[in-house]
Amino acid sequence: MHRKHKASVATAAAVALIAGGPAVAAAAHTADSAGTAPAAAPVRADVDAAGAVAAALKKYPGVVESLDRDGAVWHVDVIGKNGKHAELTVDTRSGKVFTENADDTDGDDGGNKALVSAKVTAQQAVKAAVAAHSGQVRSVEWDDDDDNGSRYWNVEIQSGNRTTNVHVDATSGKATVSGSDSDDDGN
Prior knowledge:
The chain is an alpha+beta fold and about 190 residues long. Helix content is about 30%, strand content about 35%. The protein is built from five helices and eight strands; from the N terminus they run αααββββααββββ. Strands 4-3-2-1-5-6-7-8 form an eight-stranded antiparallel β-sheet. α1 (about 5-20) runs antiparallel to α2 (about 20-35). It starts with a helix and ends in a 5-residue tail after the last strand.
């Protein structure tokens, strides 16, 4: 390889690394070494529910109270280790986390105690729900029904044009399909 060609390969790999990460840089280097044009950048997969939870908890350690996908963002509510409530937004493309609001738990007088002490976390509820009914998780919400003392996670799963609600018991982790609806507008 000529010195000039080595420099251009190194420059292309550096630009690819900055623009698209190590996989794109490696593809650019491999393609250039073979004397062919680099392949198009791989399509990035959206951050899924599990990824959004992990990113939110990395930024704001605590316990997830709810998670909801809204277009290109996930809204994640977290009860922090400090007892404060945080509303976070996770970008579905980059995984970047933004704090929308972090304050006291809205005057909560210990009502989050059940959530914080639940044996099954939001992350575990997502896994159990998807194992019971395949599809894409659209939302997860803690439900502490004081009327009958039940505590569970309500996980909404999108599969094709159907939305299915799966309840996951907060103690046992048992997932039960509770209902399914057609999505009339195709979303």
